[in-house]
Amino acid sequence: MLRQGVMAALLSLVLVAVSGILSTDTHHLSNSTLHHLTQKLLQNYPRGVRPVQNWTQVTTVYLDLLVHAVLDVDAQNQKLKTSVWYQEIWNDEFLAWNSSMFDGIGEISLPLSAIWAPDIIINEFVDIEKSPDIPYVYVNSSGTIKNNKPIQVVSACSLETYAFPFDTQNCSLTFSSILHTVADVDLAFLRSTEDIKKDKKMFMNDGEWELLSVPSAYHVLYSEAGDFAQIQFHLVIRRRPLAHVVNLLIPSIFLMVVDLGSFYLPPNCRSRITFKTSILVGYTVFKVNMSDEVPRSAGSTPLIGVFFTICMAFLVLSLSKSILLVKFLHTERSNGQDHPLFCFQKTSGTRPQDSALVTRTSLKVTDSPTDVPLSQEHQTQAGFLEETLAQLQSISSCIQALDQAAQQEASWLRMLYRFDKLLFRGYLLVLGGYTVTLCSLWAVWGSLQK
Ligand SMILES: *[C@@H]1O[C@H](CO)[C@@H](O)[C@H](O)[C@H]1NC(C)=O
Ligand SMILES: *[C@@H]1O[C@H](CO)[C@@H](O)[C@H](O)[C@H]1NC(C)=O
Ligand SMILES: *[C@@H]1O[C@H](CO)[C@@H](O)[C@H](O)[C@H]1NC(C)=O
Ligand SMILES: *[C@@H]1O[C@H](CO)[C@@H](O)[C@H](O)[C@H]1NC(C)=O
Ligand SMILES: *[C@@H]1O[C@H](CO)[C@@H](O)[C@H](O)[C@H]1NC(C)=O
After folding, report:
1. Stretch 127-156: mean pLDDT, rounded?
2. Which ligand is the nearest neighbour of the Cα of 142?
3. Cα(192)–Cα(420) distance, rounded to whole angstroms?
4. pTM over 0.85
5. Which has the minimum average pLDDT: 24-38, 99-113, 191-205, 260-274?
6. What is the CA(184)–ligand 2 centre distance, in A?
7. Deepest of 186, 195, 320, 375, by most Cβ within 10 A of its Cβ?
8. Contact between residue 118 and residue 185 where contact means Cβ atoms under 8 Å apart
9. Atom from ligand 1 closest to the CA of residue 32
10. In the CATH scheme, what architecture does the domain 59-240 have?
């Protein structure tokens, strides 16, 4: 009984204490100027209505953009991912107060969800990225609202990879109201366009991409649905090519020079085939490695890829020509002779041997009819002379045929040599063109203002 009484007393004491705390708390709250002001501002605030007293009044939204980082340039999907700081400022006529009536409060933060906000979007926007959600805006006593937010934008952009790795990209971010025409919501720059253009102090300048400038422009889009105000920021960025020069261009140039050197081996040399085949394997390995690094886009192929394919075509042409030549020489000398593996043995040197061999065999063949038994000396002598004449005739025709074959072979060789020379010149021309193009691309890249 006693215990219950104590418990009840304690409970009532606690209740009194809690109610006292609560009452002083509500008293504190009602006494807080900030709370007072917020309540006064938001009590009858029409958050669905554009905040102007006179509906003919245009709400002007001032925009500003700071480029923070270029996160990804996806040429295959034509997408650019950037991180930007975005600021918009507008005036709300319903959110103004007399600061001397509220303890001199000049600026308060209000929840964004409780007030009217312009519906400004980025037109090129293609993907939702994680951006921190900032729920408050700052309002000052004249009703000016500041809304700052960092956003990660994935925007559609026409990316040109033609000049890779010396390419410059120009992507735009267009801000406009999705619904409101220029008669209701207008846009303007917060800073001068010159300042925006040159502002790079926020940019993280360590990545592959370098920010050149951010030119911007205001214009009104006239369409059937109405006239919309637009502000366009162009992000002009350029690639830092050094890594690609070291990883791609210099090895590719080495391969091409070695390939060019292979033309100095005589075309009828068989080790040239081995040599060229190993270069071809090298090219293939290189191309497989390269395909990860070189951006691919449906619209344009990088010039470096085109050059590589042309060089490969030259290599394959010259290789097949060498194979043709060796096969041709092989059938010509199919008399069991060892083929020269030495590259500087002339085919003309082996030719007399060939003809001598053939003559000897043909002599042997024509020798056999002389083995007839002798009957009379005269007859034999006349017969022998006739035999000899026939033999001589056959020898001369045989030699003529051989000569013709040799001539044919020589003309074939000459033609193939000429083809080889032509290929070499074509290759030199392509390589020269490659060098000149790369140098001029580099020069253009360098001439762009820092
Ligand atoms: C409440 O407001 C009155 C008048 O403005 C002031 O005198 C008093 O000190 C305030 N109380 C507290 C707890 O701030
Ligand atoms: C609204 O503004 C226009 C032009 O500024 C003026 O002609 C009109 O009288 C105003 N309307 C009201 C209700 O104040
Ligand atoms: C603000 O309030 C003070 C004091 O109540 C008054 O003197 C002043 O005129 C007011 N200012 C405006 C702009 O209404
Ligand atoms: C509110 O902010 C705007 C823009 O920054 C400024 O022009 C205006 O003077 C400020 N009003 C007051 C009362 O500070
Ligand atoms: C970027 O592209 C826009 C049009 O899309 C063009 O007006 C602007 O001049 C370009 N800027 C540069 C530096 O190329």
Report:
1. 90
2. 4
3. 64
4. no
5. 24-38
6. 15
7. 186
8. yes
9. 14
10. Distorted Sandwich (2.70)
